[in-house]
């Protein structure tokens, strides 16, 4: 089946994902030097898959591993959550930018260029099959201090898979992220925002916290550049996690929109951050 056919099929699964994957409450994720606490948050609307001047070096600059490198170490198991994290600490007017489903050679470089221009770091939840063809982009994310999370290998609806299939989707992606980014991912996002018990359990076993979002730009539906800008600017608030996509179709609107809304957020005094690394 061709990728465009897969994308169409996955959009048809959206309604099922919304019903099966939504959670009613959320946690607050560590960002900067803040401690994690729990708080209520609105349930985000799941979006279908979006397939398809450098920054100062990060304090945790990473070097890609090679096949001749040391064996992978077992991840530290985390407490199993029953719902994903939707928000970050609001202290210091913090917000977080996240991009799903890439990397894509046509759009991801332009988004990285805009982030670099404004010295901003973001989170990228990548699909393993996209990383396989664009390893250099994940290496660039590491070099420029962005955080890379696991978004499964093929972006399936997890609630339709058995436990072994979910584990394969997640483990393969963690492996290729470790090979290209330089360390295993510490964050996981379920495709379509559709979570289930197995995803929470397996993510915790692999050392990953579940991350959702607060504001969906719905750029996956190509609503127009002005609409995307409006949704980001209207949804901006301390603690918010913004969801955009750097793959999954024509993402030229996303590329254009970020050039407008990113400087706006900075001018409004928002501090755009990423989660600190867990040692």
Name a few traits of the molecule.
279 residues, alpha/beta, six-stranded parallel sheet, 9 helices, 11 strands, 35% helix, globular
What does it look like?
- The protein is α/β, with parallel strands linked by helices and 279 residues long.
- It is built from nine helices and eleven strands.
- The chain has helices at 3-12, 14-21, 108-117, 128-133, 135-143, 163-181, 197-205, 225-235, 252-267; strands spanning 26-29, 37-39, 85-88, 94-100, 123-126, 147-150, 187-188, 209-210, 215-216, 241-245, 271-272.
- Helix 3 (108-117) packs parallel to helix 9 (252-267), helix 6 (163-181) packs parallel to helix 7 and helix 8 (225-235) runs parallel beside helix 9.
- The longest helix is centred in the middle third of the chain and has 19 residues, at 163-181.
- It is globular, with a radius of gyration of 17 Å.
Q: What is the secondary structure topology, with strand pairs?
A:
Elements: H1 3-12, H2 14-21, E1 26-29, E2 37-39, E3 85-88, E4 94-100, H3 108-117, E5 123-126, H4 128-133, H5 135-143, E6 147-150, H6 163-181, E7 187-188, H7 197-205, E8 209-210, E9 215-216, H8 225-235, E10 241-245, H9 252-267, E11 271-272
Parallel strand pairs: 1-3, 4-5, 4-10, 4-11, 5-6, 7-8, 9-10
Antiparallel strand pairs: 1-2
Helix pairs in contact: 3-9, 6-7, 8-9
